[in-house]
């Protein structure tokens, strides 16, 4: 994967996330257990901090154990409850064992937030089979394995639950990331379908669709593409992971107890106005990319 690292860190640091003001009351998720995939990434990390600060035990999931352990240590320093779980969401057996382990250790799971995911920018006409499969397996199949394992455990334990899937805004042709638009459209459709099937199990399923949110995940885009992201919406700025975290807390918790099958867009109005060119603006559209 080609990386274009920024000279400065993108997104929010743990020190900032520890004190960022929140609209929620301190104990709104007290005693709850929340699983956050991609919990050591940019958006997942903000979600982990917010949910832990709201009183939950946060089980953070990813492939890189050292990143997860470092985050759990940072949370523990502030007397916040968290545990680190290494798993590749593309491996259904590992995902099932993950939920077995969290239930065994914590005795409950209340919410699942799927923030693990990503893609690389490339014109669709040039996608390789391996590249296409990497994006579909991660974002559609991986998210599904997590959703199904969470729901099966809730059914077995006769416990209510809620799922929030972090997706991408799919209403525009977002140039250069067609594979992820396909995968995320699948997740949105799937969420709507199982919101109905799983309502009898007292499981709600919603999505949050972020616009351009500054995180280290952006290192897969060129500095020129990143510099243009503020023009992707009429607020003329990029979003913060905290803004996605608060929308996620709203949907995951009791504030959304009558909401299911919904997708909440957090994009500064980008669906209404703005330009997003993940591979640069082509000459055809008035840009200078050949
Ligand atoms: C309308 C509303 C307006 C809204 C405005 C929205 C604006 C949004 C702008 C930004 C959109 C989204 C941003 C984000 O989501 S950033 C945060 C997410 N994080 C990432 O994306 C991190 C990087 N991506 C990943 O890690 C992916 O998950 C990935 C699928 C690439 C990783 O999977 P895996 O580890 O399996 O992948 P590999 O590195 O092994 O690669 C597998 C094959 O994929 C192909 N590939 C990978 N990178 C590239 C590349 N840069 N170019 C072309 N092809 C690539 C390739 O075939 C790989 O195989 P090989 O290595 O063998 O060649
Ligand atoms: N930032 C943005 O502008 C936007 C982001 N999004 C989406 O929001 C989600 C979070 O994005 P963001 O936090 O910025 O991205 P990051 O790249 O910062 O974080 C993604 C996390 O996902 C984890 N992950 C990736 N693949 C797997 C896997 N197979 N199994 C387990 N964990 C995995 C990674 O951890 P590890 O490497 O340890 O496995 C990483 O911590 C993604 O789905 C992203 O596409 C949507 C719209 C815009």
UniProtKB/TrEMBL annotation:
Record's signal peptide: none
EC number: 1.3.1.38
Keyword vocabulary terms for this entry: Fatty acid biosynthesis, Fatty acid metabolism, Lipid biosynthesis, Lipid metabolism, NADP, Oxidoreductase, Peroxisome, Phosphoprotein
Enzyme class: oxidoreductase
Pfam (any one): adh_short_C2
Pathway given in the UniProt record: Lipid metabolism
One GO-annotated biological process of the protein: fatty acid biosynthetic process
SUPFAM superfamilies for the chain: NAD(P)-binding Rossmann-fold domains
Subcellular location(s) per record: Peroxisome
GO molecular function: trans-2-enoyl-CoA reductase (NADPH) activity
Swiss-Prot/TrEMBL catalytic activity: (2E)-tetradecenoyl-CoA + NADPH + H(+) = tetradecanoyl-CoA + NADP(+); (2E)-hexenoyl-CoA + NADPH + H(+) = hexanoyl-CoA + NADP(+); a (2E)-enoyl-CoA + NADPH + H(+) = a 2,3-saturated acyl-CoA + NADP(+); (2E)-decenoyl-CoA + NADPH + H(+) = decanoyl-CoA + NADP(+)
InterPro entries attached to this UniProt entry: NAD(P)-bd_dom_sf (IPR036291), Peroxisomal_t2-enoyl-CoA_red (IPR052388), SDR_fam (IPR002347)
Top-level division of the source organism's lineage: Bacteria
Subunit (UniProt): Interacts with PEX5, probably required to target it into peroxisomes.
Family: Belongs to the short-chain dehydrogenases/reductases (SDR) family.
Described function: Participates in chain elongation of fatty acids. Catalyzes the reduction of trans-2-enoyl-CoAs of varying chain lengths from 6:1 to 16:1, having maximum activity with 10:1 CoA. Has no 2,4-dienoyl-CoA reductase activity.
Family annotation (PANTHER family): PEROXISOMAL TRANS-2-ENOYL-COA REDUCTASE
Name this protein carries in UniProt: Peroxisomal trans-2-enoyl-CoA reductase
Organism: Bradyrhizobium lablabi
